[in-house]
From TrEMBL:
It comes from the Eukaryota. The keyword Transferase does not apply. Belongs to the iodothyronine deiodinase family. Pfam families: T4_deiodinase (PF00837). One of its GO terms (biological process) is thyroid hormone metabolic process. This is Iodothyronine deiodinase. It comes from Scylla paramamosain. Keywords: Oxidoreductase, Selenocysteine, Thyroid hormones biosynthesis. GO terms for molecular function: thyroxine 5'-deiodinase activity. Responsible for the deiodination of T4 (3,5,3',5'-tetraiodothyronine). The keyword Oxidoreductase applies. InterPro entries: Iodothyronine_deiodinase (IPR000643).
């Protein structure tokens, strides 16, 4: 959540050269798990409806101008991309050309921005 404002800026800056998408995966800090006070109050998802409701709650607080996909309850996207708690990827023509480190410390929008600037020819 803390990085969404900066993510929106990167989307705005590079929206003409890249398509952006956010995938909402399992909750990193659920109220019935490793909860951090002050975070979004969301329990572990027991149904896909709960996961969709949690994604909507996030978007109500931090709207995004890109498609938001919701991972299955079997966490297929999370397992395929090792996304928990958060991670950045650039996929070009079906090939991963950038894989960021795991967040929060490996979540480096500046690296994505540098890659996109290079791709754009800046």
């Amino acid at each position: 959540m803390a990085n969404l404002a900066r993510f929106r800026q990167v989307m705005e800056d590079f929206g003409k050269v890249a398509d952006f998408v956010t995938v909402y995966i399992t909750e990193a800090h659920p109220t019935d798990g490793w909860h951090i006070p002050g975070n979004l109050e969301v329990a572990n998802h027991k149904t896909i409806e709960e996961r969709f409701a949690a994604a909507k709650k996030m978007l109500d607080l931090e709207p995004l101008d890109c498609p938001v996909l919701v991972d299955s309850l079997t966490d297929d996207a999370n397992k395929a991309y090792n996304g928990l708690p958060e991670r950045l990827y650039i996929i070009q023509d079906g090939v991963i050309v950038y894989q960021g480190g795991q967040g929060p410390f490996g979540y480096k929008l500046k690296e994505v921005e540098a890659w996109l600037k290079d791709y754009k020819g800046e």
